[in-house]
Amino acid sequence: MGRNSDPAVARAKVELAKAAGFDVLRVTAIWAPGQKAVPADQLAALQAVAAAGAFDGITIYTTVMPFGSKTTPLTNTARAQFAAFAADLVRRVPGIRNVIVGNEPNINRYWLPQFGPNGEDVAAQAYELMLARTYDSIKKAAPKTFVIGGSLSPHGGDDPHSSRLTHSPTTFLTDLGLDYRASNRAKPIMDGFAFHPYGDNSSVPPTAAHPNSTTIGLADYDKLVHLLGAAFDGTAQKGSSLPIVYDEYGIESVPPAGELTLYHGREPTTTKPVPESTQGQYYDEALLMAACQPTVRAMFLFHVTDETDLNRWQSGVYYPDGKPKSTRAVVKETIEQVHDGAVDCTAVNVPSDDGWTLISGASTVGKTTGAATKPLKHHDPRDAWRLISTAP
Which of 247, 332, 372, 389 is deepest in the core (most CB within 10 A)? Predict the structure, then answer.
C-alpha cells in the first residue's frame, strides 16, 4: 500500500485490505545515499500504517530498498548507511517486525552494475555484502525481527552483452550462495527468502511451469527449493528449509467499460491483461498452490487497489475509487478456505509433502470444507501461513 502519514488515510487503506480478507500488508521504506535514519515524512507514514495495522489485526511487512539502480549501495560506507537506516526503522517503529531487504537486485531497474568486466556476476556479490551488513544491524536493534532476503525477479537474461543487463533468479541465487560460502560467515544473512513468482504476462496461469529455463514461477517451487538447498545447505544459513515469502504476485485485469473514466494512459502490449473472471480464477489457483507448498510462509498480491495509469498495475481487487471488483469476493473466499484448513493439497497442482515432486491433478478445489475427499493438510511449518496484499 502507499505511504501516507495521515492516520485516517492509513486506517482507511488498511480497512479496505481487511474487507478483502487480507491479514498482512507490505509497505516500502526508500533509502537514499547519506541517510542513516528514516526521514521524518517516511517515519510518520510507517508509524501511521503500523498503528492502523495493530488496530485492525493486520501485520505489516516493510521492504527497505534504494529507489533504483542509480542509488545502489555499492561501497562500505553506503552499505553501512543502508544498514543503519533499516535498524533505525525497526528501532523507532516497534510495530514492524518483518523486513525485506532490497527489491529485485537481479535486474538493472533496481541494481547496477550486474556484470563485471569479464562478464562475472557482481550484483549477487554486492547484494550479499549489503544483506549481511543489514541483517546484523537489524538483529542488534530488534533481535526478534524476521529479516527476509532476495526479493528476486522471476526473469533475467544472464547476458553481459545485452541492452538490458539482468540475471535470472537461477543464476543469481546460485551466485549468492557461492558468495556467502566464500565469505566464511558463521551466521545467517536472512531468516526467510523473498521471491516474485510472476508469470510471463498476466494471461499466463500460475500453474505454468518452466522446467527447461532459468525462469522461476509459482509452479516451479521444487526448482526454487532445490536452488536454495544447493546454495546454502551445510552452512550456517538455512537453504532447502528456509521459509519462502512470495512478496509480489499480480494479475492485471481489463477495466470494464463502466469504470474506464477512472483510468488514463495506454496499456502496454506486453502486459496482456485478462477479464476480471480470469483474474479471480488465477488468484484462487495461486493462493491455493502457495498454501500447499511446505516452506511458504506468506504470499502477497500486488495490489490492493488498481493504479489509475494503465501503464502501471491494474492488479488490485478494488478499482481506483475503492469499489470492489468481482475478484474481491473470490479472493476473500479463498483466503477463508486456507485459514479454515479446508484445502485438499492432493487435488491442487502443487508439490507433495516432500516438497519436490509436482502432483498432477485439478488446479483448484472446492471452496467448502466438505469438498475435500482426503484428509486436509496445512503445510506451513510455522503454522502461521498468511495471505497478503501489497502496493508499495
Answer: 389
Long-range contacts of 323-328 (CB under 8 A, 24+ apart): 323/259, 324/19, 324/20, 325/253, 325/276, 325/279, 326/276, 326/277, 326/280, 327/253, 327/276, 327/279, 327/280, 327/283, 328/19, 328/20
Task: Express each pLDDT in 94-121 by its tens digit.
Answer: 999 999 999 999 999 999 999 999 999 9
Residues 6+ apart with CB under 8 A from 118: none
The pLDDT of residue 370 is 22
Residue 113, domain member (yes or no):
yes
Beta bridge partners of 158: none
Query: Cβ(206)–Cβ(199) under 8 Å?
Result: yes
CA dist 251 and 275 (Å) reads 10
Domain count of the chain?
1
Whether 1 is covered by a domain: the verdict is no
Whole-angstrom distance, CA of residue 61 vs CA of residue 93? 12
Q: Does residue 58 contact residue 14 with C-beta atoms inside 8 Å? A: yes
Which grid coordinates are listed for 63? 521492504
How far is Cα 89 from Cα 100, in angstroms, rounded to an integer?
Answer: 12
Q: What is the domain extent for residue 225?
A: 7-390
Summarize the confidence of residues 301-325 as an average pLDDT: 96
Q: Quote the Cα angle for 317-323-328, to 5°.
A: 30
Q: Does 314 fall in a domain?
A: yes
| CATH number, domain containing residue 326 | 3.20.20.80
Residue 96 three-state SS? strand
Instruction: Please check whether residue 325 is in contact with residue 20, taking contact to mean a CB–CB distance below 8 angstroms.
Output: no
Does any domain span residue 2? no
By the 10 Å C-beta count (0-12 exposed, 13-18 middle, 19+ buried), 311 is classed as exposed
- Residue 274's contacts (CB-CB under 8 Å, 6 or more residues apart) are 202, 203, 251, 252, 253, 254, 282
In terms of Cβ atoms closer than 10 Å to its own Cβ (0-12, 13-18, 19+), residue 226 is middle
The predicted model gives 5-16 an average pLDDT of 89
